[in-house]
Amino acid sequence: MKYLSLAYLVALFGFILLPVVTLVIFSFQDGRLPVPPFKGVTFEWYAKILTDRAMMEALGNSLIVALLSSLVALTLGFLAASGLARVVLPGSVLMRGLLIAPMTVSYLIIALGLLQMFNKIGIRPSLLATGIGHVVINLPLCFAILYAAIGEHQKSALKAARDLGAREWQVLWFVAAPMLTPALAAAFFLAFTFSWDEFIIAFLLTRFDVTLPVEIWSMLRSGLSPATNAVGSLVFLVSVIVVVTLELTLFRKGSK
């Protein structure tokens, strides 16, 4: 049974990680196509993308949009979760449903709706429009994570702080936020990751200043290249560094 479980874990991780391993290996391909056979190791493609001005601008745009939209979504989700957890209103169930509803809607439908709305009110396709779109899709995620993390213990602590005379912003900043730090971090980094990788909304709501996924799509239109593998490998490396850092610092500290 022990060896069967081990074999199952190996097969599971192999199934999950094989595409990523293949992507990384062929990012070093000493040839023009990232396909077998592997012809040798070269860092040419990494040097090419790191010196590509359009790629670096798209990378900066993605970082800005992901960071700001995730912070806005986290703040709004935190406030909504704290408010709905504090009091039970006649329409609380409906409010929670409406807040979570965008998670069940296709990104394409959301993007088309936002595009039409922005055209009506005069907002042109831009990084701002993309950031608003990412707030729309990440706010339900942040709300769901934070609302689920607020248990009876947290509610009792918040109530005690209010009974002792703390103002609402003090309760949220000095009591609620520290208790929900792991959940806040999880919500933020999930929102950041979804915004970082999101393509459809960014494609429809940007024009000249594009994000990294849109720039990668532009590269793919000209055909397969190890350069696209190199971009994907760097993005994956950043994600791994973030996850490992969180595990070694925040989450491990929270479990203790």
TrEMBL record:
Pfam families: BPD_transp_1. InterPro entries: Bact_Polyamine_Transport, MetI-like, MetI-like_sf. The keyword Amino-acid biosynthesis does not apply. It is a multi-pass membrane protein. It is found in: Cell membrane. The keyword Membrane applies. Keywords: Cell membrane, Membrane, Transmembrane, Transmembrane helix, Transport. Belongs to the binding-protein-dependent transport system permease family. CysTW subfamily. This is ABC transporter permease. It comes from Salipiger mangrovisoli.
